[in-house]
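Quiz preparation item.
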């Protein structure tokens, strides 16, 4: 997607109502290449506030589109904004949520429509699409909502001490955790659909690293390619050769997954249905395991010695790198159970721009007390030395986080 314009209709931290930014259009000659937009300014000029506004807007739109019709009045909040952006036609079609008039604009005009969303203060959003010659308002039975017009991924990362940008992403984690709990015992994996918003913290960095190396295209065999033009990337693989060259890493050597699961005697399972299958598959992929299981407690540790057979097992049971990431992400949400219900509710319902760092409100737990954790990740360097994940430099961690996320969470179009 490409953001074209945002405008505030209400005050947000130090930004006044009427604050507007128009982004320069993408140059046609570099349309098919990474074309980053850099926001440059003096300290205190509002760079961080602008990024947080963008995150809050997409957070609001995400939970608004996921809300039940009976709760839509709760979204008539004092946060007001306008936003305009383009989305790829392929991404819209992949979402499989119809808007015939929008498709007609694409097909008949041959132009890329702009999505315009306006949310007045204490009102619900109004969504329309337009080109230079045509404009259409979204009207449907779902109270004029369509999740297909939202960006497939919104990813944030900060290497500084300003954690305000993480606020919307912390809130969305609690929203998804509550949904996970409400659907416990529901059959099928649709309750574990991938989240749109991701904040690259320490935990997600580990997930990205594992998924990328386990699905490294260098580990694929040619006989896995069924078609003449099929590549490892078509099968969910991640091309890591450039990242590995920069880091002087040959391959992933080993890692561990630890679980401390509990359930009541009346509960049938330790995990929601979709995660039960994920855990079964992780056990099948492991080199060996240790466990202590009773009717209500299950302490499990999975050990993975990574070689081509390990990679093949992960490809068999999880199919794609992003599918493995999805399951690890939801397993990590289980750690929210350690936080009091009162604090979880307070964080999930925090209004835009009203909190300082939500991360400061979260308790820090000892690693041994976590319900789920990934640890003891080790690599083989190009010189054959073994290096622990913790021993990588800050720059190496940042490279794994940023490029790993771009490679793993990229979407068609």
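Solution:
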């Amino acid at each position: 997607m490409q953001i074209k314009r945002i405008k505030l209709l209400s005050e947000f931290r130090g930004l006044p109502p009427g604050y507007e930014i128009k982004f320069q259009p993408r140059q046609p000659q570099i349309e098919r290449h990474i074309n980053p937009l850099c926001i440059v300014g003096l300290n205190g000029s509002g760079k961080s506030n602008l990024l947080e506004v963008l995150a809050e807007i997409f957070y609001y739109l995400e939970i608004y589109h996921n809300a039940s019709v009976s709760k839509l009045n709760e979204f008539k909040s004092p946060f007001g904004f306008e936003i305009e952006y383009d989305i790829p036609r392929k991404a819209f079609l992949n979402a499989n949520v119809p808007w015939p008039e929008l498709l007609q604009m694409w097909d008949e005009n041959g132009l890329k429509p702009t999505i315009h969303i306006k949310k007045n203060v204490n009102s619900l959003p109004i969504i329309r699409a337009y080109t230079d010659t045509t404009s259409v308002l979204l009207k449907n039975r779902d109270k004029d909502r369509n999740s297909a017009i939202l960006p497939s991924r919104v990813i944030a990362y900060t290497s500084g001490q300003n954690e305000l940008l993480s606020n919307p992403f912390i809130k969305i984690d609690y929203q998804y955790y509550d949904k996970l709990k409400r659907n416990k015992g529901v059959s099928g994996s649709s309750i574990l659909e991938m989240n749109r918003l991701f904040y690259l913290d320490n935990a997600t960095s580990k997930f990205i690293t594992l998924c990328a190396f386990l699905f490294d295209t260098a580990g694929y065999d040619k006989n896995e390619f069924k078609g003449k033009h099929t590549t490892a990337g078509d099968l969910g693989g991640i091309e890591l050769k450039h990242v590995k060259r920069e880091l002087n890493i040959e391959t992933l050597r080993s890692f561990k997954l630890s679980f401390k699961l509990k359930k009541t005697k009346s509960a049938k399972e330790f995990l929601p249905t979709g995660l039960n299958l994920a855990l079964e598959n992780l056990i099948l992929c492991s080199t060996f395991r240790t466990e202590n299981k009773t009717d209500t407690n299950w302490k499990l540790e999975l050990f993975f010695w990574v070689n081509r057979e390990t990679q093949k097992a992960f490809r068999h049971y999880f199919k794609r790198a992003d599918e493995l990431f999805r399951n690890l992400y939801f397993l990590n949400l289980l750690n929210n159970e350690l936080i009091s219900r009162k604090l979880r509710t307070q964080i999930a319902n925090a209004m835009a721009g009203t909190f300082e760092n939500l991360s400061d409100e979260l308790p820090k737990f000892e690693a041994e007390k976590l319900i789920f954790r990934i640890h003891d990740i080790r690599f083989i360097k190009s010189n054959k030395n073994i290096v622990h994940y913790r021993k990588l430099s800050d720059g190496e961690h940042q490279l794994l986080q940023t490029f790993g996320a771009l490679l793993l969470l990229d979407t068609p179009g």
